[in-house]
Specification:
binds magnesium ion, Rna Polymerase Sigma Factor, Chain: A, 18 helices, 397 residues, seven-stranded parallel β-sheet, globular, 3 domains, binds nicotinamide-adenine-dinucleotide
Length: 397
């Protein structure tokens, strides 16, 4: 079908990261072709994307939506074959034709196809941080065993990756790295009086000052759970212990993160807040390609500010450090409870200020144990979801 091009499967193509990925793909038709696009339920958006990018396969969750999309594509003369269900996600992430997989499904649902991409040795462009948080050790083992290449899309981790020396396999100590400084904007409620937090609405929480993102990660940014998940993500990607990962509030989101070295050097990566930068970086690595991003104008920015995070205002950040130190299934429990709490908040069933409490209660309720098998992790995820949902139900009575 497409000769000499790198073929990509975009998991979560209709989301914020998926759309940015296809924008970069579309700028380089000589370099990239699309093997498969997937979406949960957004059939119309996926149809439009298929008509532009002409993938071999499209995947949606339900068989009914798949049949509908297939008819619409045929009517437009497009040969894309439509599949459905979670098995199809695994198939399009691991098919032999595929060179790289953009893992941009939100939440735990992204874990099975991302693991499949790891096992089949793909270049994985990892946006779906929840997959790594849930099963970090197992995930990294699969990446190594499958000979996959894991490149971070999260802007902070992509920045850290860019600040590390080539051949970082020697680890932090072998490379002279002393600390990783993970920047955080602080989200929309950085300076809001704490007693006003119970009144915040989903739309207020999703109005991020610097980034346009999906609703779940936007709420995570408002609670700073996003930064907590990113601390855990950094631990697995770079082999850094919790003590070596420091969160720095930097409201302008221009410095995307920093790496501190033993000789006193601190390397930062800067850029406008536009996810097409890390996406293009990871797609073309080690080359550099145009990403359509506005050049950084330091004179326009004028100043860069920094402050320490307030763990009282943002208790979710503390919970994330706690589970990273605890290990085992605790990060999977934290992630599952957070997904339930955020969905409940977005549905109007839970107050914003209660999200952290749901997570703390679930962490206390689920027995700690090792995360030595995927089944064990998925069982902890299931138990945590069940507990958190019951807790939310009681809280909203
Ligand atoms: P989004 O909500 O905009 O898009 C999510 C995508 O996943 C959509 O295509 C949706 O159809 C699909 N999806 C949702 N639930 C699914 C399910 N159960 N099964 C299959 N597909 C499903 O989210 P986003 O903002 O693009 O974020 C995607 C991932 O990237 C998240 O893990 C997020 O944390 C991470 N991320 C996003 C950004 C950003 O700027 N948006 C930055 C860093 C990391
Ligand atoms: Mg990020």
């Amino acid at each position: 079908m497409i000769q000499g091009k790198k073929l990509i499967t975009v998991l979560g193509a209709t989301g914020s990261i998926g759309v940015s990925t296809l924008d970069v793909v579309g700028r380089h038709p000589d370099r990239y072709g699309v093997f498969a696009l997937t979406a949960h339920r957004q059939v119309d958006k996926l149809l439009a994307q298929c008509l532009v990018h002409r993938p071999a396969y499209a995947v949606v969750a339900s068989a009914d939506d798949a049949a509908l999309l297939q008819v619409m594509l045929e009517r437009e003369g497009c040969c894309t074959e439509v599949l459905s269900g979670s098995k199809a996600l695994v198939e399009v992430a691991s098919a032999p034709e595929v060179d790289m997989v953009m893992a941009a499904i939100v939440g735990a649902a992204g874990l099975p196809p991302t693991l499949a991409a790891a096992r089949s040795g793909k270049r994985i462009l990892l946006a779906n941080k929840e997959a790594l948080v849930m099963s970090g050790a197992l995930f990294m083992q699969e990446v190594a065993a499958g000979g996959a290449t894991l490149l971070p899309i999260d802007s902070e981790h992509n920045a850290i990756f860019q600040g590390l020396p080539v051949g970082f396999e020697r680890g932090l100590d072998g490379s002279g790295v002393t600390r990783i400084l993970l920047t955080a904007s602080g989200g929309p409620f950085l300076n809001k009086p704490i007693d006003e937090l119970p009144a915040v609405t989903p739309d207020m929480a999703c109005a991020h000052p610097n980034w346009v993102m999906g609703r779940k990660i936007s709420v995570d940014s408002a609670t700073m759970m996003n930064k907590g998940l990113e601390v855990i993500e950094a631990h697995w990607l770079f082999g850094a212990s919790a003590d070596r990962i420091e969160v720095v509030i930097h409201p302008q989101s221009v410095i995307h993160s920093l790496v501190a070295y033993a000789d006193g050097s601190v390397l930062a990566q800067l850029g406008n807040p536009d996810m097409r930068t890390p996406i293009a970086h990871a797609m073309a690595y080690p080359e550099r390609i145009d990403a359509g991003v506005k050049p950084l104008d330091l004179f326009e920015i004028g100043r860069l500010d920094f402050q320490r995070p307030d763990f009282q205002r943002f208790p979710c950040l503390g919970h994330a450090y706690r589970v990273l130190r605890e290990g085992g299934v605790a990060p999977a429990v934290l992630n599952a409870a957070n997904e339930v709490a955020v969905a409940s908040f977005l549905d109007g069933k839970l107050g914003f200020e209660r999200i952290a409490g749901v997570i703390a209660a679930t962490l206390d309720a689920i027995e700690p144990r090792d995360a030595d098998s995927l089944d064990g992790v998925l069982e902890a995820d299931r138990q945590a979801r069940e507990y958190a949902a019951r807790f939310v139900g009681r809280a909203s009575c």
